[in-house]
Amino acid sequence: MPSVSPAQQRERNTVQIGAERVNNISSKEYPHHYTGEDHSWQPDKFRKNVKVQFHQNYPLHAVFSLIGVDPSFANALRRILLAEIPTLAIEDVFINQNTGIVHDEILAQRIGLVPLRGSKEGLRWLRWRRRRRMAGPSEGMGDDPGPTADDVEEEGVVGAGDEDAPTDFNTVQLEMKVACKWKTDGERKFREEDVTDPKELYESAHIYASDLKFTPIGQQEFKFPAEDPIRPVYPDILLDKLRPGHEIDLVCHANLGMGADHAKFSPVATASYRLLPTIDILEPIRGPAARRFQKCFPDGVIGLEKKRGKAEAVGGALQQDEEEANEAVVQNTFKDTVTREVLRHEEFRDKVKLGRQRDHFIFSVESTGQWDSDELVVESIKVLREKCRRLRTCLNELREVG
Which of 124, 196, 319, 343 has the most CB atoms within 10 Å of its CB? Predict the structure, then answer.
């Protein structure tokens, strides 16, 4: 196998960014592309090259670098984070009374989008509830063949026998019972003092997510103790506004689901990645030009270093050329956003080369609060491993049949 110099390897692994185009986008390191080079995927090589570096790790936001992997691997993790990690969310809302101004359907939709949290031990204990025309993680994504002729009743709906009944193992119940009324001296303030602030006039004028109360059923009392019950992540989400005489009485059922079915089941607000930028200064940039060059990038990307300038004879003495004292150097490409602003300036076009490192992915994961961001990353890897295991099983079965 012919040896490849570090410079050649770096050139292969860099997406080249020009003023108006992007080149070398796709990876070419696959079998039989380069003569005499074997780029087949090997577990030992993968273990040696892959690296994970966390730059920021908070419960609701994590930033980390995934290095030494193919874009397909990074994108698989991103898609799993968005759509394939089971998450608890409100699925059914049973409205007994709603005399407020928000219609039942709109109120149910607003409640369904409220992110929930609770005891992580209890959340792991919950089981999937099989719903109509839905496949749980045990069946796999896309494996549900859909309703058959025997399943369809008069109106084309899957029969009740194909849906699991709600139990303490698969369903969490929350209730809301609120009624708006005048405060003790609210009517007097309204008539005599012309007070219009609802907070001074009424009780329960604003309905928030905190008004959803967890009602444990069966073993849920032990799995979700009083100090860590099921509750909204953000209790101050406004759901409705009421006035005296208005009342809301409803019951909610929350189940496990996946973002592929509905966005409310997605455990992340967003999960994205970008490639690490690369900046190569081809010629020294000094003096005032260095400062102009620095302003073409976000703060912290380009720095100025003191360099020994030219020595000139002036009146028989040596004088330092201050104009050449500062030289532009690359400090931290992690902060760069690759705006290409520097390529708009004619004086810098041939002095700098921009790119992105193809196998260095900078992930940003923002959790909705049910799970910590780093826990979601680990869970996404578990899901990917399970997918690979299923694929290998299917391939083995095909081999036996063949």
Answer: 343
For the chain, the farthest-separated pair of C-alpha atoms sits apart, in whole angstroms, at 106
Give pLDDT tens digits for 100-124.
999 999 999 999 999 999 999 999 9
Contact between residue 57 and residue 51 where contact means Cβ atoms under 8 Å apart: no
Whole-structure pTM value: 0.83
Q: How many CB atoms lie within 10 A of CB 32?
A: 9
How many Å apart are CA 271 and CA 248, to the nearest integer? 36
Spell out the long-range contacts of 289-293 with Cβ–Cβ below 8 A and sequence spacing 24 or more: 289/328, 289/347, 290/326, 290/327, 290/328, 291/326, 292/345, 292/347, 293/328, 293/342, 293/348, 293/352
| Residue 306: exposure state from Cβ atoms within 10 A (0-12, 13-18, ≥19) | exposed
How far, in Å, are 42, 286, 287, 321 from residue 306 at the CA level? 47, 10, 10, 12
Q: How many CB atoms lie within 10 A of CB 367?
A: 26
Distance CA 156, CA 297 (A): 60
User: Is residue 288 a contact partner of residue 325, using CB atoms and an 8 Å limit?
Assistant: no
The 10s digit of each residue's pLDDT in 352-375 is 999 999 999 999 999 999 999 999
Residue (of 12, 34, 35) closest to 25 by Cα position: 12
247 and 180 in contact (C-beta within 8 Å)? yes
Phi, psi of 9 (to 5 degrees): -65, -40
CB burial of 332-355 (b: ≥16 within 10 Å; e: otherwise) equals: ebeebebeeebbeeeebeebbebb
Copy the structure tokens of residue 341: 């602003």
Q: Contact, 121 vs 227, CB < 8 A?
A: no
| Cβ proximity of 136 and 130 under 8 Å | yes
Q: How far is CA 31 from CA 27, 41, 74, 358, 392, in A?
A: 12, 9, 20, 18, 21
Task: Assign 163 a pLDDT band (cuts: 50, 70, 90).
Answer: confident
